Structures are given as C-alpha cells and as structure tokens.
Amino acid sequence: MSGELRVLGACPLDCPDTCSWVVTVQDGRAVKMRGNPDHPFTRGALCVKVNRYLEHTAAEDRVLYPLRRTGRKGEGRFERISWEEALNEISTRLTEIVETYGGEAIWPYQGTGTLGYIQGETGEAGRRFWNVLGASRHDMNICSRAGSIGLKYTQGTSAGMDPEDFASARLILLWGTNTLTSGHHLWKFIQEGRAAGAHVVAIDPIRTRTADQADEHLPIRPGTDAALALGLLHVVVSEGAEDREYIANHTFGWDEFHAEILKYPPTRVAEITGLPEESIVALGRRLAHTRPTAIRATMGLQRNAGGGTAMRTIACIPGVTGDWRYPGGGLSYSTSAHFPLKIDSRDDLLPHPVRTLTMTRLADGLEDTENPVKCLWVYAANPMGSTSDQNRIRRGLLREDLFTVVMEQFPTDTADYADIVLPATMQIEHADLHTGYGHLYLTWNEPAVEPLGECLSTTETFRRLARHMGMTEPSLYDSDLELAEQLLSSGHPALAGITLDRLRKEGWVRLNHPRPFQPFADGFPTPSGKLEFASQQAESDGLDRVAGYVPSRSNRQDHDRRGGRRGGRKPYPLTLITPASHNFLNTIFGNNPELRRRSKNPRVLISAEDAERRGLVDGQPVRVFNEHGEFQAEAEISDRVRPGVAACEKGRWLKFTQGGANPNAVVEEGDADMGRGPLYHDNRIEIAPLA
Ligand SMILES: Nc1nc2c(c(=O)[nH]1)N[C@H]1C(S)=C(S)[C@@H](COP(=O)(O)OP(=O)(O)OC[C@H]3O[C@@H](n4cnc5c(=O)[nH]c(N)nc54)[C@H](O)[C@@H]3O)O[C@H]1N2
Ligand SMILES: Nc1nc2c(c(=O)[nH]1)N[C@H]1C(S)=C(S)[C@@H](COP(=O)(O)OP(=O)(O)OC[C@H]3O[C@@H](n4cnc5c(=O)[nH]c(N)nc54)[C@H](O)[C@@H]3O)O[C@H]1N2
Ligand code: SF4
Ligand SMILES: [Mo]
Beta partners for 622? Predict the structure, then answer.
C-alpha cells in the first residue's frame, strides 16, 4: 500500500506494563494500533482500555485549542483563544504572582497522566522552567510512596524481582494486587509457573477477577497484612524451616525480628485478619516448604495508614525463607528503581530554596492562607476525580483569587475550573522515553502523526512559554531528542550499549540485567548491606526499629469501637475500598462512550449480611457517605466482599455520574504511615438507600 508506515510507540499510561505498540499510518493518519508481538513481556496484546486509544485520540470532545473561561469556575464554559493570547495572559499573571507573592505561590501540580520521562511524570518537562521562576516543588506521592519507603527500610530499594522470573516460582502470592485488571501481562508468566506446578494464592479483601483465577483466595480484613506476614513466618519458624545460613549471612536484626514473630501465633493472627486459623497455618506450611516463593505485592496493599509498614514487613519474608537465593524467588513491587536514567531538573537554576507541596494534600494546600497558592498549574492530572477529599478540593478550585491553568487532552472535571486550558498532545503525537514499573524494558515512543488542532506537547508548551517570558537559560530550550540523550547518559552499566538511535530503531531494549535476574546476589543497598529486619534508619525516622504490624486507620477505629466510642462519636461501620476499575485507567477513558457503556452505573459491593442489616436489595440506588461527603451508586449484594467491607471502583468522571461525585468524596485527606501516601482504601463509611 502506498504511503503506509508502521511506527513503534509505547503506552504512556500509569500501568506497570508499558506496552510496546505499533501504529499504522496511512497518508498522515493513524489507522491502526496493535500491541507489538515482538515485545518479550507484552507480546502483542494491549488491554480493553488502550484497544480504544486511537478512537480516543480522535474523540469529539478532545481539547484542540487554547481556551479561556467565560462562565463561572466549575461551569466548564470557555471561548477559543489563540496561543498568542494564552501565552500573553499566562505570562502576565505569572509575573504578577511572582512579584507580589514570590515564586512559591505557584504550585506545578503534575500527575500521572503519562509516565513518559520527557513529557511527564518524573521527567524534565516543566521542572527547569519552574526552577527559573522559583515555583514550589511538587511531591508526586499519590500512588506508591508509602510502599516504596517501607521496602527501602527492608531491602534498601523498592525494586526487586524481574516479573518475568515469576515463571520459575513454585508458590506465588498475589498480595493486594489485582493482576488481571491492573497489569495483566504478568499473568502469562504466572501461568507458566503454574503449568510447572506453582500454587497461586490471592490475598485480597475482595474476590477480584484475579482471585477468581487463583488456586486459593484469602479474603483478608483490609489493613491487616503485616499481621498475616508475621503469622505466616510464625508457622515457618515453628516448622524449623527458616533458612539459617541465609539469615546469618545476608540479614540484619534477626533476633529482634524473631521475637516480634513469636508475638503473632496463628490464633491471634486469625483474630486480627479475620481469616480462618487453618488457612493461615496451611499457607504458612506451604511457604515453609516451597522454594522458590515469589510475592507480587503492589500499590493496593499500601493505600492505608499501616501500608508502608505492611510492605516493610512482607519484604522480610524472603529474608527468612532465603528465597532471594533462588531464581524465581523474592518480591516484586515496582521495577522503576532498576532504571538508572539521569534526571537533571537543574535545581541550580532556583533563585532561592523553595518549599515542597504534597500531591496528596491538595485540599490543605489550597486552603493555606499564610503562604497561599495563587497559581495552580495542573498537567497530566485530574485531581477533581482522582484526589482525596473531593468537596474540599472543589472549594479550593472555586477560589476567585486562584489562577488555574490546566494542560489537558479532554474537558475533565478539573479543566472545568480552569481560567486557561491549554490543549495537550496525545501519545501518538509526541516523542517520549519510557521505563516500566512491571518489567525491565526501556521503550521509545516515536511520534506517528502530527498533533490535532493546535495541541502542543508538554515540553513544547514550556519552551514557548519560556521564550514568551524572555527567559535566556539555554537548557530550557533543549529539544525532546536532546532530553532523551541526557536521560540515557548516566553511564550506568545497565544502560551500556543502549543508545537513542538503537531505541528509535528497535522500539524497546531490555536493560543489561542477566536472566534470570537476582537483584540482591551481591548484597542489599541498605546501610548494613543486608536485608534489614531491624532498621536504624526507620528508628531515626521515628518509626519502629523492627518490622512489625501497624493497623490501618479502619482497624484502629474497630479496636477503639470495641473499647467504647471514640471522642463520643461512633465511627462509620464499613471500610470502603476503591480499587482500579477494569475499563478505566484512573480517570482516563472516563469519557469514552464505549467504555462507559460497558462499565454501566457505578456499583458499590456489599455483603448480604451488611445489606440485610440496612434493608438494601440488589441494584438499589444508594448513597455512600461519611463526614467528608457522599457519592451515589447501585448496591451490588455480593459474596465478593467480606462483611464489614464495601468496595467501589475509582475513575468515574463526576460530570457523568449521578450525584456529581465519585468515591473520593468520602476519602479523607490523611497520611499513610510513610511518605504521606494516600488513604484510598482506608475510610469508614455508611450506606443508605437513596431517598
Ligand atoms: N484497569 C486499570 N489498570 C490500572 C489502573 C486503573 O485505574 N485501571 N491504575 C493503575 C495504577 S495508577 C496503579 S497505581 C495500579 C494499582 O494496581 P493495584 O496495586 O492492583 O491497586 P488497587 O486496584 O488499588 O488494589 C489492588 C487490590 O488490593 C486490594 N486491597 C485493598 N486494600 C487492601 C489491603 O489492605 N490488603 C490487601 N491484601 N489487599 C487490599 C484491593 O481490594 C484490590 O483488589 O494499577 C494500574 N493499572
Ligand atoms: N479513590 C481512589 N482514588 C485514586 C486511587 C485509588 O486507588 N482510589 N488511585 C490513585 C492513583 S494510584 C493515582 S496514580 C492517581 C492518578 O491521579 P492523576 O495523576 O490525577 O491521574 P488521572 O486521573 O489519570 O488524570 C490524568 C489526566 O492527564 C491527562 N493526560 C494524559 N496524558 C497527558 C499528557 O501527555 N499531557 C497532559 N497535559 N495531560 C495528559 C488525562 O487526560 C487525564 O485527565 O489517582 C489516585 N486516585
Ligand atoms: S494500560 Fe497497561 S496493559 Fe493497557 S496498553 Fe497500557 S501498558 Fe498495556
Ligand atoms: Mo497509581
């Protein structure tokens, strides 16, 4: 066919798999997108969401031109303006704000819409520009921070196993992770292990589609995972199956941790976790006698007030069993930290030291009157839909004195509050470099087509704005390809031989790690060089010295409740979990007609026992509420959730949802035990019929 081109790209979404894709371009138009069959991890498949990416790119509601607000904040009424007008207005307002309040009055609120290192997430896009202005720093802790910190205490890094090595495991624990929904390509490797005899256990308060497919499901009470880890180790130790040689030579703090384990006999753990004692003992025995055991524990596990500690303690398991010795043994959370890219955000450009604002504390930040935020600059984020304490965020965004700029592809609930909306390119329209958090491949995304309308990439938007504001710092004008070269220039052996040319030609390249990959064969990057059951660092950070169990907020409230009312107020009775939805990616695709149709109305899962107590019938419209707010859903009476637990998926757009709210209306803006991580799965609520 004449004029047909095949362009290699990468899925930019916040998903562990970072699929490699092939876009077919005819006469300058993208006509087909398929998973790249040559990619060893993703092997040609995308997912139900991204199968619609081309359709999404061409969607009618795409933002194609700069917009200026004409209606009231939140109404979503805008007029089209030129880029020149937009840049004029923005530079005037930014200059005024910096002169009157200082650069720190600007909050560059960057989200996870793309994980690209050039256009998004951890990349340079914007950071150098904000440094020149002296804007506040933005701590992007919304997703995985608590768990990463917990892992660092034990292993020295959040990186662990190569997920491909799950094929060699003989016991696989899927712990607080919904593989078939939130990163399904790992499943093939799990199935390979299974074909060779591996037993697969899902540990999840919800019987998810992943739990359905596992050999065994432990419906644990939310936020009690560290207690389960200690209970399983209690059984391992009782069986005399701890790996004494490994413990002696490769771990630190065993005596103290051993004493902690002994406090958690299965009977006590059954009480804490709500699991039958027999199940705990049976799994403990399996763990004691099955090598290698691979643990996949992801972000779902750490979205509660004990979540960092849970990861820290679960990571102790392979230290006791010695699993890190064996290919296919150990733990996998995120592979991000295996990618040694060189990030140079040029902090030397800052005119003065600046404060850091915390992504999980947007509502607080917008309420601060002492050091007020005067400009909120939102890019690749949709906080109205994705962030805790929706009602307070809305109040913040309604502030008349707040200048809000939103760089977006779509008219999101957040964009409705913008003073200026800037049209953003989508992945087939810009270049980017990607790592992955569920595998070890670097992937290059070559632009396949010209941007629609007047959309600009993030980097190009900041280059134009810098020029418009007369900034002279040369590094603000580095091209996307120059930025990519810089990222690849760390000189780390894992990148040896991986050049931009090669990436552009081949699409993806595996890091130079052996296969199988035993990341801690030469020791752990902790202060002692060993796996640390006890951590000096944790102690000096004000945490327990020894890994243990910290109950989630919901569990603490349960304990408080048993002991009487808390501050005279009865806590709300049910714990709400708000996990990943199958058809949306956070709030991305929340406006896609077909995916919305498939997702039907929002549903809140509730056990028959809890439904009966409230007189609820299946399918009944209900309100889910607590002191922070409420959202509406249909009750789904289901044995997928245990009594005491309710669940409703994240990701709905408020404007398409009955009642104009999603589960984040009842999520408190509180902190996990580490890194101020969010509490998405740790909120008490009540459910009642909708009047
Ligand atoms: N389809 C789809 N895929 C996605 C996303 C999406 O929105 N949709 N989001 C992406 C993003 S941003 C991320 S961070 C990842 C997240 O992916 P996951 O880590 O899988 O995160 P969640 O879906 O939040 O939670 C996973 C499971 O943990 C369970 N869980 C909740 N609390 C607890 C607990 O206390 N203990 C235990 N044992 N389990 C618990 C939940 O019931 C849920 O089934 O997925 C990514 N992939
Ligand atoms: N209740 C509940 N809430 C949650 C979670 C939960 O488990 N429960 N999970 C949390 C997690 S894990 C995460 S990571 C956060 C995510 O929260 P956010 O970071 O706010 O991500 P999204 O809601 O996906 O919004 C991303 C936006 O970026 C836009 N976008 C995509 N690509 C680009 C680009 O290249 N340029 C620009 N300018 N824009 C782009 C998309 O159109 C989309 O509107 O949500 C959190 N929210
Ligand atoms: S969302 Fe995940 S599974 Fe789907 S295409 Fe992107 S990387 Fe692949
Ligand atoms: Mo995330």
Answer: 633, 689
Measured distance CA(234)–CA(230) in Å, rounded = 6
Q: Rounded CA gap, 163 and 183, in Å?
A: 11
At residue 563 the predicted structure's pLDDT band, cuts being 50, 70 and 90, is very low
- Structural domain count of the chain: 3
Residue to probe by mutation, ligand 3, list 18, 46, 115, most atoms within 8 Å of CB: 46
Ligand 4 center to residue 144 CA distance, Å? 7
Residue type, 491: G
Parent domain of 99:
67-143+339-510
The reported pTM is: 0.98
Residue of 19, 41, 582 with the most ligand 3 atoms within 8 Å of its CB, for mutation: 19
Question: pLDDT tens for residues 469-493?
Answer: 999 999 999 999 999 999 999 999 9
Quickly list H helices, 357-488.
362-367, 383-386, 390-397, 458-468, 480-487
Ligand 2 close to Cβ of residue 406 (< 6 A): no
- Measured from the CB, is residue 35 less than 6 Å from ligand 1? no
Candidates 614, 584, 616; CA nearest to 602 is: 584
pLDDT higher for 310 or 691?
Answer: 310
**Is residue 8 in some structural domain?**
no
Of the candidates 43, 63, 57, which has an alpha carbon nearest to the alpha carbon of residue 12? Answer: 57
Asked whether the predicted pLDDT for residue 63 surpasses 70, the reply is: yes
CATH number of the domain where residue 683 is located: 2.40.40.20
Task: Report which bound ligand comes closest to the CA of 360.
Answer: 2
What type of residue sits at position 601? N
CA distance 355 to 138: 9
Cα–Cα–Cα angle for 573, 578, 581, rounded to 5 degrees: 150
- pLDDT value for 565: 46
